[in-house]
Every structure is written in C-alpha cells, then in structure tokens.
Amino acid sequence: MTRAAVLRSAVALVVIALLVPSVSVAKKKRKKIVWHHYAVPFTCGVNAADTARVVPGTYAVSMDLHNASAGDATLIQYLALTFPPGGIAAGVASEARQDVLPAGVALQISCAELMGSDFDFRGSPPASPYIQGVLVIESSVDLTVGRTQTATGATGEVSVDVERIPARVVSHKVLVCHDPSDPHTISIAAPAWRAHQAHGDTLGACL
Prior knowledge:
By secondary structure, the protein is of the alpha+beta class. It has three helices and twelve strands, in the order αβββββαββββββαβ. It is flat.
C-alpha cells in the first residue's frame, strides 16, 4: 500500500470516528418529546347583572393556535372552569380530549366550542348564561397561541384585549398504574394523565 493510500485510510477512519457519536446523539435527541403547556383564560356568554365578577355585558373569545413546526402536533385539551363554581369535585370539569394539528395549519377555538358540546363534562354541563375559566392545552410541539377577548357593554361600548400566551415546558413522561382489573405500570406522556385518571388509573408505579 502506498503512503498516500495509508493516509487516505487514516483520514477516513478519523472521519467515521467523529461522525458516529454525532449520529448517536442526534438519534437520542429525536426520541425525546417535550410537551408544551398553555393556559388560556376566557370569559364567554352574557352576564346580565352579576357585578361581583365581570361588568354586565356580552363576552366572546377567540383562541388562535398555529403549528409552525415541520411535524404534526398532538394536542390534549380540557376546560378548567372557575365559574360556575364547583370544579372537579362537583363533576363540572371537562374530560381531556386529543386532537392532531398538522404542520403549518392554524385553528381557532371560540365560545361556541367552549360553551357547546365540543367538550364532554364529567357531570352535567354548567347551567349558567356565562362561564369563566381556563382552557388548558398540552402540545407535543411548540405552538403560537393567541387570545382575543371581546366584551360588549349594555350601551354598546366594546373593549378588546389581545394577548400572546407563552408556553411552559412540562415533564414529558410519568409512571401510571394502569388497568385496575390487571394492574401494571406504564409510562405515558404527562398531558395524557387526566384521560387515564378518568378510567381508574392511579398516578405512580403499581405497588
């Protein structure tokens, strides 16, 4: 083998040695899913006389979600109501629902969805002409989330509040004791916990 050939072989081995760790690290990074948490406050409906919470008027909201990433986003959403009072103990918290927001696509959530049948409640839906609370959104990719809250007063005056909702990164995996009839420990995406809790799973590894 000539000296030039030996040098070429040595260079090739060095390049391979440098590339292999990089490929390995890249694969590990691609496997990790980090969930992004958004809490979007809202008021929806008509308040005729309840001045203790908001001024009388008609309230509407639009929540705009845009997936600017190169991959589809898995969305897990649920309503956490602050009015009417009650919360989970009274059975008026919504079940978690799962959707997919394709890459490059935007969607809007309005009071029609928040007060309608788009969210399933554990008990009876709240009997109130207006509701207040937070829409919780967990996404497998970082989204652009904006909220436009509109209020129309009794004499026709209009106020508009526009807000960009920041993301909070949450733990991407939790241990759950799954299936009470045949308990076994599984690892799930953290945002999926509410759906597992609803059918009897418990948080943490099985004992």
